[in-house]
């Protein structure tokens, strides 16, 4: 399943609750447990993805997001970039060794979109962690092996919940590890209870 499938599943015709970006902050304290108890280190990378916005509204929204990001970069030193993927979804990707800065910047962007009436466009926020163990990267760096296994924690704005995603080569996923992460973190994160909604996102650009 790709981003287009996720949009159909999450932002389809069904009535969904308003997105709840404040729950993004839950990952801040949880990151300590993830590192000390689960062996997952923050990679210093995170991103937020939202559904394409019509051209006229997109120009205004992008300008405000860029202004916000420029301000945030000055305050926190966070690097960022905006890019569209093959499905025309817009990504805001952040890089910062300070995990708290990543969380704050993702929250600011989601809030800006909410305030401009684009809450329905918010798709997911993604935090990248790394664990010891041979891994093979997907997406832009597909084919390159690393000494780390990549673990993503994905926040679904519409459900207000997180779930782990551990991609493997060949568009496979490490389901046993994902279940272990759920068990270890369900007291600290609002984890999606329905595993059918743990949508795999292939080709995450970071």
Task: Report the span from N to C terminus.
Answer: 18 Å
Query: Could you estimate the helical fraction of the residues in percent?
Result: 25-40%
Mean pLDDT: 80
Could you name the ranges where pLDDT drops below 50 across 5 or more consecutive residues? 1-19, 136-145
Radius of gyration: 16 Å
Largest sheet: 6 strands, antiparallel
| Sheet/helix structural class | alpha+beta
- One letter per element, helices H and strands E, the order comes to HHEHEEHEEEEEH
- Output the CATH class name: Alpha Beta
Overall, the morphology is: globular
Question: What does this 3D model show about the protein?
Answer:
The chain is of the alpha+beta class and 206 residues long. The chain has one domain (3-12, 19-197): Ribosomal protein S10 (Alpha-Beta Plaits, 2-Layer Sandwich), CATH 3.30.70. Helices cover 33% and strands 28% of the residues. It is built from 5 helices and 8 strands; from the N terminus they run ααβαββαβββββα. The chain has helices at residues 3-10, 26-36, 55-76, 99-115, 175-185; strands at residues 41-50, 79-84, 90-95, 122-136, 145-156, 161-165, 167-168, 172-173. It has a 6-stranded antiparallel beta sheet. Strands 7-8 form a two-stranded antiparallel sheet. A hairpin with a 5-residue loop joins strand 2 (79-84) and strand 3 (90-95). The model is unreliable at 1-19 and 136-145 (pLDDT under 50).
């Amino acid at each position: 399943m790709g981003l287009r499938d996720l949009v159909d599943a999450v932002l389809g015709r069904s009535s969904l609750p308003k997105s709840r970006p404040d729950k993004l902050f839950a990952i801040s304290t949880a990151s300590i447990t993830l590192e000390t108890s689960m062996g997952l280190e923050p990679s210093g990378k995170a991103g937020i993805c939202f559904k394409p916005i019509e051209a006229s509204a997109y120009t205004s929204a992008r300008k405000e997001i860029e202004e916000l990001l420029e301000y945030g970069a000055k305050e926190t030193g966070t690097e960022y970039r905006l890019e569209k993927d093959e499905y025309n979804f817009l990504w805001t990707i952040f890089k910062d060794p300070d995990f708290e800065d990543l969380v704050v910047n993702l929250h600011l962007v989601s809030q800006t979109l909410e305030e401009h009436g684009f809450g329905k466009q918010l798709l997911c926020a993604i935090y990248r962690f790394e664990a010891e163990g041979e891994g093979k990267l997907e997406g832009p760096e597909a084919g390159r092996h690393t000494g780390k296994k990549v673990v993503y924690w994905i926040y679904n704005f519409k459900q207000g919940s997180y779930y782990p995603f551990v991609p493997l080569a060949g568009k496979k996923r490490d389901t046993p590890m994902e279940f272990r992460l759920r068990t270890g973190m369900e007291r600290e994160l609002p984890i999606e209870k329905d595993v059918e909604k743990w949508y795999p996102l292939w080709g995450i650009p970071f």
